[in-house]
Design goal:
single chain, glycosyltransferase, ComF/GntX_DNA_util-trans
Length: 247
């Protein structure tokens, strides 16, 4: 008489995997995940960005150009080692869509992904291989409480995963809550940023190479104001990186 064999976990594993796949496909059909850049539905093998946007967004390749347009913005204003932006930013374009979702709709993982992509590019430039600390442009505590996170800090975390550097989020501080910089002239932007930032523990940054990061650079007034304070630290070397450069 044949003996009855108890079913093992592996007997049910494949059907359960198929069920999870079908359920995931059904949920995606009703509530599709969209690429934050092009707004197309993500396929099953895509995460955060679709494959097309992942590879075809407008890269600047500034890591290969020491005298790029971002670096030139600081000539005669800040003594920097290097400057970089990952993408070009055009009004109404895919990069703007992506940054908006990242900055205002809680998609923090976008920042981590973009930081990782940028970090892999920066590894190709020996200047960025000497970075000790990555410091995001700080938000005022009131805005941080409202938004719940600092988008530049998310970008910094992704960079740090590739550059073997330490992220410092509480050393450079914003002491004054400023109004939006939108529609201000370059001079007005700089005046708006005057004496807004301070370094809380300068002794930690003595003789260190600091990478100052932000989401978008337009006139560079915010980064300039931060850089002025950081460069007061003895022996500090400063570089700059942003997600996008607004032409």
């Amino acid at each position: 008489m044949a003996k009855f064999k108890n079913p093992t976990i592996s007997t049910y594993l494949k059907p359960m995997q198929l069920l999870r796949t079908y359920l995931a496909d059904f949920v995606s059909l009703i509530f599709p995940q969209l690429c934050p850049a092009c707004r197309a539905s993500l396929m099953a093998n895509e995460d955060i960005l679709c494959i097309d946007c992942l590879y075809n967004l407008p890269f600047t390749n500034f890591h290969q150009q020491p005298d790029n347009i971002v670096a030139r913005q600081f000539w005669g204003k800040l003594n920097i080692e290097a400057a970089y932006a990952l993408y070009y930013f055009n009004k109404g374009g895919k990069v703007q869509n992506m940054v908006h979702e990242f900055k205002y709709n809680g998609m923090q993982r976008i920042g981590n992904l973009l930081g990782t992509i940028a970090g892999k590019q920066l590894l190709q430039n020996p200047v960025f291989n000497t970075v000790d600390y990555i410091i995001p442009v700080p938000l005022h505590k009131k805005r941080l409480k409202t938004r719940g996170y600092n988008q530049s800090a998310c970008f910094a975390d992704g960079l740090a995963s590739q550059l073997n550097a330490v992220v410092e989020t509480d050393n450079l501080i914003r002491t004054i809550a400023t109004k939006t910089q939108t529609h201000k002239s370059r001079f007005a932007r700089f005046q708006n940023m005057h004496e807004v930032f301070a370094v809380a523990r300068p002794e930690n940054l003595v003789n260190k190479h600091v990478l100052l990061v932000d989401d978008i650079i337009t006139t560079g007034s915010t980064l300039e104001a931060c850089g002025i304070e950081l460069l007061k630290v003895p022996g500090l070397k400063l570089s700059i990186a942003t997600i996008a450069y607004a032409e």
